[in-house]
What we know:
Layout: H1 3-8, H2 13-19, H3 33-51, H4 55-68, H5 73-85, H6 89-102, H7 107-119, H8 123-136, H9 138-155, H10 159-172, H11 177-201, H12 206-218, H13 222-235, H14 263-279, H15 284-298, H16 302-313, H17 319-331, H18 336-348, H19 353-377, H20 382-394, H21 398-411, H22 418-428, H23 432-445, H24 450-462, H25 466-479, H26 484-496, H27 500-513, H28 518-531, H29 534-567
Helix pairs in contact: 3-4, 4-5, 5-6, 5-7, 6-7, 7-8, 7-9, 8-9, 9-10, 9-11, 10-11, 11-19, 12-13, 15-16, 16-17, 17-19, 18-19, 20-21, 21-22, 22-23, 22-24, 23-24, 24-25, 24-26, 25-26, 26-27, 26-28, 27-28, 28-29
Amino acid sequence: MNLERASSSSGCVLQFFLLLGLAVPRLAGQTSSAGEMEMSRHLAAAQKAEESGNYPAASLQYQQILNLQPKLAIIRQSLAITYHLQNRYPEAIAEFQRALRLDATLWGADLFLGMDYYKTNQFALALTPLEKSIALNEKMAEPEARYWLAVTYSALNRPEDAVRELRRDLMLRPGNIDVLYYLVKAYDQAAASVFQRIAAIEPHAAAVSLLQAERFQQENRLDLARVEYRNALRLRPDFAGWLPALDGAGVDMTAPSDLTIDASDQRANSEYAKLLAAAEETPRSDADELLKGLELIRQGQFREAQEPLTHAAEKTSNRALQLLMIRAYVESGDCEKVEDRLKQMLAAQPEDVDALHLLGRSYQRQAEAALQQMTAIDADSYGVHELLGRQHEEKTEYDLAINEYQAALAKRPDLAGIRYAIGNVYRKLSRYEEAEKWLLEELARNPYHGLAHYRLGSIYTEQGKPDAAILHLLQALKSHPQLTGAQLDLARAYTANGRYAEAIAQLQQVVAAEPDNDRVHYLLSIAYSKEGHRAEAQSELAEYQRLTRDRLHRTQQDVKNLSDSLDR
C-alpha cells in the first residue's frame, strides 16, 4: 500500500493498521468496568469516523480515550495518524514521539514519524526513525521506509543515497510505477550533481564542452552545439564516437585561437598516447584486438567494442583503456556492470573528471532505462506524463508541459508537487492569476512546500503586494535558508514596504555568500539610499556598475569567440 496515497485518501486508518498487523488491542483490563465501557464507546466512534473519512471527529474520540488512560501507546499512535491525515504534521510528530516513549517497538509510529519529519522539511531528523522502522519490522516496514528514505536523501541533496534506497525498493516491489518514477528523478538528480562537480573542478574540461554541446543540441541550437562538439574533440581525440552528425553537417576541427587544455585533459591525452605507443610493442593479435576496440569506439559502436576492450583491459592497467572499456559498457546501457569500478576510481581520486563524467552518464542511461520500463508497463501512467512534462518544461515548451502535467494530475489527483509544477509553468509564462491558483492549491495540500511559497512570494512582489510577499518568502526561507532568489525577493518586498533596515540586513547575508552577484549590490544601493545612507548607496552602486561592465565584457568576448568559430 502506498503511504503517500493513503495519507491523502479517505481510506480507513484502522483498516490500514489491521493490514499491517498493528490492530488496536483490546482495552479490557486497562481500567475499571465503567471506564472500559466508555473507552470502548469512544473507540467504536473513532473507527466509525475513520471509515467515513471524518478524521477530526476520530481525533476527538481518541483524545477522550487518552483522557481516561493516557498511557495507551497504540491509541496515541492512532491519534497521531489522524493528525497526519489532516496534514497536522507537528501535532502528529508530537503524538508519535509520545507513543514511542511509551512503547519503543511501535515500528508504524517510527515509519510515520519519519514521513512527517520529511513533510515538515526536517529532513535530517527523518532518517533515524525510518531506519529504525526497518530494524523493528523489516518485512512490513521496509518497502515504504526505503521509499521515504530515498525522497529524504533527495531533499538533502544526496541523490546517490536516494538511488541506492530506490534500487532496493524496486527489488522488493518489482515493476512498481511509483518506485520507478522516483528512481528516474533520483538518477537525473544524481547525474546533474555529478556534472556540477565536474564544472566546479575543471570548468574548461572537454567533458564540460561535450555536456554543453548536448544541451544546445537538445534545445535545437545547432550552431552552438557544433562549436562545443568541436572544442570537445579538439581537446580530447578519444571522445570520438560521442559526436553526432548534426543535420548532415560535419564538425569543423579548426582549433580556435584561445582554446586551452586543462590538467585533466592533458593527463588523459598522455595516457591515450601511451596506450597507442604500447600497442606497437605488444603481440600482433593483442594489438589487433585493442585497435579494433578503439576503432569501434571511434565509430560509436559501443556494444561491439565491449569484448575487445575488456580483453585488452585485462592485460594492462592503462587508465585510458580502462575508461574506454567502461565507456563502452555505459553507452551500451550495461551501467551496473562497471559502476563499482567507477566508484573505486573515485574513492582513490575523488576529483577524477573522466570517472565523474562516466558516472554521470551512467546515471543518465539508467534514468532512460527506468523511464522505458515505466512506459512498457503503462505508457499512460501518471509518472510518464509528469516526466514528459518536465522534459517539455526544460525545453521551454510550456504549453506542452502544462498538458502533460494536467494528464499526470488526472491520473493521480493526490500526486505531491504536481500542482506546484503547473503553477510554476504559468509563472514562467507571466500568467500570474493562474499561477497563483495552482500554487495556493499545492499549499492547501502541503503547507510546508517551500518552493511554492517562494514562487507565490515572487509573484506578489512583482504585483506590488509586499505584505503577502513577505509572509510567503519568510516561509520559503524556513525550508530553504540559502535560496538566493527568495532572499532577494524578500529584500525587494521589505524595501517596497518601507522596511529598509530589514532589507539591508537580508541583502548583506547574500553579499557575504555571493559577493560577485551584481543584482544584490544594485538592491543594496536602493535600500541604503532609502534609508538615507548616501555614501553606502554610492559605494554599492559603483560596485554594481563595475560587476555589470565586467559581465558585459565577458559576454562580448564570448560572442566574438563564437562568431570567429562559426566563421572558421
